[in-house]
Amino acid sequence: QSARQQIWHQNELRSHLFAFITHAIRTSSNETAAVKRLWEWKQSVTRRQAAYRKLSSEPEAADLLQQLAELAGNASLLLHSMPQSPIDNAGAEVRKRFTAERLSRMERLRELNRMQENIEQQLAAAAKKRGLDLEAPELQQIRQALPEETALVEFVKYVHIAAAGEPSAGQKPDVRYAACIVTAKAKPVVVDLGASRKLEDSIIRFRRPFTAKTVTNEMLTDSERAAGQLRSEFWRPLQNHLPGIETVLISPDGAIGILPFAALPGSVPETYLLEDYRFAMLPAAAALLDSDDGDQAIGYASMLLVGDVDYGATSELQLASSEPDRSIYAKPLPGTSRELEAIRRMRDAQRLTTKLTSLTADQATESNLLKLAPNHQLLHIATHGFFQSQTDDFDAAAPGSSTRPASLPEQNPVDPLLRNFMPGYLSGLALAGCNTRSQRSGGSIDGVLHSAEVESNSLENVDTVVLSACETALGQEIGGEGLIGLQRAFHVAGVDTVIASLWKVDDQATASFMEKFYTNLLQHRMGKLDALRDAQLQMLKQHRAKMDQNPRGLGAKPSKIQATKPAVKSASPPRVPAAAYWAAFQLSGHW
Description:
This protein is of the alpha/beta class. It has 17 helices and 22 strands. Helix 2 runs antiparallel to helix 3 (31-41), helix 5 (59-79) runs antiparallel to helix 6 (92-130) and helix 10 runs parallel beside helix 15. The longest helix is centred in the N-terminal third of the chain and has 39 residues, at 92-130. The two termini are 32 Å apart.
């Protein structure tokens, strides 16, 4: 089966899982059976696809992966060579030619997708012939892998199955969220978190000041209200089962994947959960079984640094969507040069033997990145990132801003072919030449590295990827598989740890944040999660030192801000939560 077919098959099995989750919540029993079923279903396609990449040393699988990578590159190039829509006063013949050309290219894209799925089916057959073991982990294995002061919280979006006589029986599906909490010693607990619509609404409202291009006083007030609701109705029921826990490993589902846990209100007024816990995301519970002790610092023998990219001229890059004139444009990012130089300076100051390879300017191409990446333990990629979402609920692009997304149109309808069959092309990174879509010797490049292209490669030797770019933790929501985007793509390719962002990040603020992170990682020899968390705590401390009386650490952000009521001389202007600076980045995988 192809990845899409595997996802479809897993969706057919969801009702069995929902029955186990419902029974565990209703009776407060059989939690172990519910957790086992959850691990059999959740992230199973991601685990399977990642396992296929590990066969890259075998000739048959290596050839198939090479074909898959070539097809992904061809699809990416085709996406970004769609004909531009004609001007308003264009004649009927011009419009007719445009329509015919676009339909022809979309049909070619469908053919490439069919070819990709055929290769994926052959990979699955090769893995089956190889006897690849993809059994779900056992509870005892996970408990033994968990440090004593660490909890795994598995979220699941499910349909509550009403018993005969219950009010919702026979009515429309009761979609809810639940969490399965697993620790080293206590028995598993399944916690009901209520209706999905209410929780997702709170998450959207809470995030809005972090992501909006224009912030209002009403938006800030509503975000604060949503934060309180998330604290009392979402986090507190979980916290009741976390006594003595210091590290919380989050395996998300649905909208939980875009929630910045560290930015939620802390146990003391005007504090954050960042100050109470260490948070890391897990692509799947099985990742615990092959992880090293996350508290140990790692000495990187080699690092590949990508930044200060030459995106080319100021033409716009075409995106395939339901409207033909969707485009993105990448502006220069001077802060990325500062990041790369800071890493080199720290390496030299510490007299580390780490080998540094840099890809900058017009050398920061897709082909160079994919060629060199497998030979390095850490990849630092500082550039524009994007996620082409179906709606603007979770982000509002600010064309020409100093943040690190490539500019996207405010209304962004996504072509059904991409949304339903090719979600790996909805997110990506802007690299050299993306504004010019140059044709170079040795092959064609479009300057955009999509998630689908990343996961078509084997990066098993890469330990850590730092995506110093916008929205790299976002993706298309697929039930049970999380968000299909860059973060997942690097995990599928074999990368142990991915650090990515949940929203658009300011160029200079990100450069400052990354300097702190690498100082902790390389100079102070902290573990990856501690290095990230300490950098966040440092930025939080800096913002607190600058503010006067701002609830929960609110601080000014260089963003377009407006009041929705007539200005009052004595009133303070609306301010964006300081967490918008430091809470965007999260660690996924080995911590």
